[in-house]
Write a structure and sequence with these properties.
Length: about 400
């Protein structure tokens, strides 16, 4: 471990502050370090490992495809990509899918689509995209522009033009921005993940979707974190009962391998034409086969279980010493603690549970199939750390 840390510092770019922990293997919601200590995984690789580590059906889907055919490029037809797109459309009612490799890339594609939609219909200049303060949309220069948090903007200018930020849950602010600028789209997370697991009000979301649609402004929902069963529906917009024009997702879609997807409705499905966008790796057959097995298993029964587990976590944390409140939906939850969240999370690691943080909160995004027993153990450790 000491040697690994030294080499990591020497050879890996210094962009991550890592916890003092080397993970070597895992099974379901349990992970082990290099000396055999076990940890309950309440982060799932930041909402990526939808069915935990080493999940058998996902592994089978991936390895069976690996035995057949791996990367081909998008110059040729491959079945796993089409199967996954068809399944996503069937389960959402969206019409077409573009595959890429990450959340930021999915949002880049959504932004390009919104600009082209507006340019095709209204000519140049109507390109502003309204995002929300405190949002997170990725780390490329353009998705950083879309991200409404100054901390991410320091040092990296100049940024892509054409992004303005509205105050979350303030309809008047959104209306003023939509009326005062030549807007192509709004882009929002329904639950701001990196922004501290902040859940947007239903009434606000309904209203801004109407405000946008009355003006033929596209509604882009960033479901990179909230998607793929995380909040108790396949996509969180389905919980809100809204109809977006574009939905982006990534993280949990691939069950552990990198994939991003952009879904288009009838209004946006034909905006991008031949040659207007592409990705070398996008829609890789191996990853799509794994993603298909993930999406296929996100059914009513699993979603009900996610909601039962949310209730269990909320009940266990009720009136806990040092806990101020719980926000979020399904298995995307944030716990505000009296102690700094980072200190709480460090103590939990010492006691065998891996949580995440988001802003001032302890964040949890466990595998969707985590057992109630593991949840009980993990929350017990969290309560102890919060009460210190
Ligand atoms: C993680 C995240 C992204 C960025 O995804 P990457 O795969 O890291 O590029 C974008 N939007 C939201 C809401 C996210 O949570």
């Amino acid at each position: 471990m000491a040697d690994l840390k030294k080499k990591d510092r020497k050879y890996i770019a210094n962009t991550y502050t890592r916890f003092d922990l080397e993970l070597v293997k895992g099974n379901g919601s349990e992970l082990s370090d290099e000396s055999g200590h076990q940890y309950i995984d309440m982060g799932a690789g930041i909402a990526v490992n939808t069915f935990g580590t080493n999940d058998e059906p996902w592994k089978r889907a991936v390895t069976e495809q690996m035995d057949m055919l791996g990367h081909t490029s998008n110059l040729y037809y491959t079945a796993p990509q089409v199967k996954l797109a068809q399944l996503l459309c069937k389960k959402t009612g969206m019409k077409k899918v573009f595959f890429c490799n990450s959340g930021a890339e999915a949002n880049e594609c959504a932004i390009k689509t919104a600009r082209k939609y507006s340019s095709d219909k209204y000519g140049a200049g109507r390109h502003t995209i309204v995002t929300l303060c405190n949002s997170f949309h990725g780390r490329t220069i353009t998705t950083l522009s879309a991200t409404g948090q100054d901390v991410f903007h320091k040092d990296f200018g100049p940024f892509t033009d054409g992004f303005i930020y509205a105050k979350p849950d303030d309809c008047n602010d959104m209306k003023d921005l939509l009326d005062g600028n030549r807007c192509a789209a709004i882009m929002i997370e329904l639950i701001q993940g990196e922004g501290g697991v902040y859940v947007l009000e239903r009434n606000y979301v309904d209203k801004v979707v109407n405000l946008a649609h009355e003006r033929d402004i596209l509604v882009i929902i960033d479901e990179v974190q909230t998607g793929n069963g995380r909040t108790g529906e396949l996509y969180c917009y389905q919980r809100y009962g809204i109809l977006p024009d574009i939905v982006t997702t990534a993280k949990g879609l691939g069950g552990g391998l990198p994939i991003g997807a952009v879904m288009f409705n009838e209004r946006t499905e034909n905006v991008l034409g031949y040659g207007s966008h592409g990705s070398t790796f996008g829609g890789n057959p191996i990853i799509c086969a794994g993603a298909y097995s993930v999406i296929k298993r996100i059914d009513r029964k699993l979603m009900n279980n996610v909601l039962v587990k949310e209730k269990l976590i909320r009940d266990l944390l009720k009136d806990s010493q040092g806990v101020i409140g719980v926000t979020g939906m399904g298995l995307m939850l944030g716990v505000e603690t009296v102690r700094p969240a980072k200190d709480v999370v460090k103590d939990c690691i010492k006691n065998g549970v891996l949580f995440l943080t988001a802003k001032n909160k302890v964040r949890m995004l466990p595998p969707l199939n985590i057992s109630s027993e593991s949840i009980r153990k993990a929350i017990c450790v969290l309560k102890e750390a919060a009460a210190k």
